[in-house]
Specification:
Largest sheet: 7 strands, mixed
Helix content: 40-55%
Subunit structure: Homodimer.
GO biological process, one term: aspartate biosynthetic process
Keywords: Aminotransferase, Pyridoxal phosphate, Transferase
CATH topology of the largest domain: Aspartate Aminotransferase, domain 2
Number of strands: 13
Number of domains: 2
GO molecular function: L-aspartate:2-oxoglutarate aminotransferase activity; pyridoxal phosphate binding
Order of helices and strands: HEHHHEHEHEEEHEHEHHEEHHHHEHEEH
Strand content: 5-15%
Cofactor: pyridoxal 5'-phosphate
CATH class of the largest domain: Alpha Beta
Structural class: alpha/beta
Bound molecules: (2S)-2-hydroxybutanedioic acid
Radius of gyration: 21 Å
Shape: globular
């Protein structure tokens, strides 16, 4: 075996993080990984998470027993309500199977594994279609699950917005029954989302083509600052009667990155046999989960569950979310203004048009590497920046570095 295992490349994003940490330059700027930072470039433990943490630590009944295979029930049911809406007919009709997962990655993985094993259309396992570009991990997760994948057009380099026509014509052209992976909100890496009107058209085409929507929702609360609005697309698709699945992460919106709290939901279409279908699906998901992780980790789910299920803590969480999304919006406004003041060649409206954690700056790979070398600014090669890495202390420095590299 030793001879036949080829050396794999380092993960680009985690490699970037390691390179940043090693850099000793005082003014270095980290715009790489999508993790929220405060105005001092420090990780931010949400105040509501600190509070929940203390309540849990003081609980005399706390123990470290195993969770059930599907995870903490109060957590998965609250996760359903958060994503599907508290008054969701799918929840009322008992046609949702939910399992706690190793954050969003684990949820995408569990979904991909399940589809790879059970989802057939005309006797074939359908291909997954991703937006071009998409989160760097989607491809390798599908590879691991032995699901083939291709892309549909999504981002227009010209407008730095959505290539809606390209997206629609590519989705129309995919084979019937294809799996279409959709970012529920705050698209990673582009920060470009369809409008509600566009979502309706996407749903219409996908219904005609009998396609299977696979939603990835890792930024609920980050796009509009409103949890319900950010779940609109998912709820609309469910209302249209799709069978679909959802991979939900609490890494960003709870700041629980390392605790790996997430949830996978499978929603069946309405119908008289929906409940028996979901029972069978849940039983198979449980076997996949058991064989992979046995049962999920408790800590992050306990925190999220306490907050999601306690009205006062929930309200405080919403305020914490507004603090994060508000600071990011402020950085967008300032960055655009600074580049426009500097007269940096090009247009910069996309910085404020795009939403969520990321901006797709339009900088080329060459410019990204140059800015890293000259100014010690770290961003991914595709020109994505994590807006949360900008703050009142480094935004001038960054704007000047962009100005310089664009003029070179
Ligand atoms: C990102 O895209 O930066 C985050 O989703 C972190 C990750 O795991 O890739």
């Amino acid at each position: 075996t030793a001879d036949i295992v080829p050396q794999a490349p380092e993960d680009p994003l985690f490699g970037l993080m390691a390179a940043y940490r090693k850099d000793t330059f005082a003014q270095k700027v980290d715009l790489g990984i999508g993790a929220y930072r405060d105005d001092n470039a420090k990780p931010w433990v949400l105040p509501v998470v600190k509070k929940a943490d203390k309540i849990i630590a003081d609980d005399p009944d706390l123990n470290h027993e195993y969770l059930p295979i599907a995870g903490l029930q109060q957590f998965t049911s609250a996760s359903q309500r958060l994503s599907l809406g508290a008054d969701s007919p799918a929840i009322k009709e008992g046609r949702v199977a939910s399992l706690q997962t190793i954050s969003g990655t684990g949820a995408v993985h569990l979904g991909a594994l399940f589809l790879s094993k059970f989802y057939k259309y005309s006797g074939q396992t359908p291909t997954g279609y991703f937006s071009n570009p998409t989160w760097a991990n989607h491809g390798q997760i599908f590879d691991t699950a032995r699901l083939s994948h291709k892309t549909y057009r999504y981002f227009s380099p010209t407008t730095k917005g959505l290539d809606f026509e390209g997206m629609m014509s590519d989705i129309k052209a995919t084979p019937e029954g294809s799996i279409i992976l959709l970012h529920a909100c705050a698209h990673n890496p582009t920060g470009v989302d369809p409008t509600q009107e566009q979502w309706k058209q996407i749903a219409q085409v996908m219904a005609q083509r009998r396609q299977f929507p696979f939603f990835d929702t890792a930024y609920q609360g980050f796009a509009s600052g409103d949890l319900n609005k950010d779940a609109w697309a998912i709820r609309y698709f469910i209302a249209q009667g799709f069978e679909l699945c959802i991979a939900q992460s609490y890494a960003k919106n709870f700041g629980l990155y390392g605790e790996r709290a997430g949830c996978f939901h499978f929603v069946t279409a309405p119908g008289s046999d929906a409940q028996s279908t979901i029972t069978r699906i849940a039983s198979q998901l449980a076997i996949l989960q058991r064989s992979e992780i046995s049962n999920p980790p408790a800590y992050g789910a306990r925190i999220a569950s306490l907050v999601l299920n306690t009205p006062e803590l929930f309200a405080e969480w919403e305020a914490n979310l507004r603090t994060m999304s508000g600071r990011i919006i402020e950085m967008r406004t300032q960055l655009r203004a600074k580049l426009e003041q500097l007269g940096t060649p090009g247009t910069w409206n996309h910085i404020t048009d795009q939403i969520g954690m990321f901006s797709f700056t339009g900088l080329s790979e060459k410019q990204v590497l140059k800015i890293r070398e000259d100014a010690h600014v770290y961003m991914t090669k595709n020109g994505r920046i994590s807006m949360a890495g900008l703050n009142s202390h480094n935004i001038d420095y960054f704007a000047k570095a962009v100005d310089k590299v664009v003029r070179e």
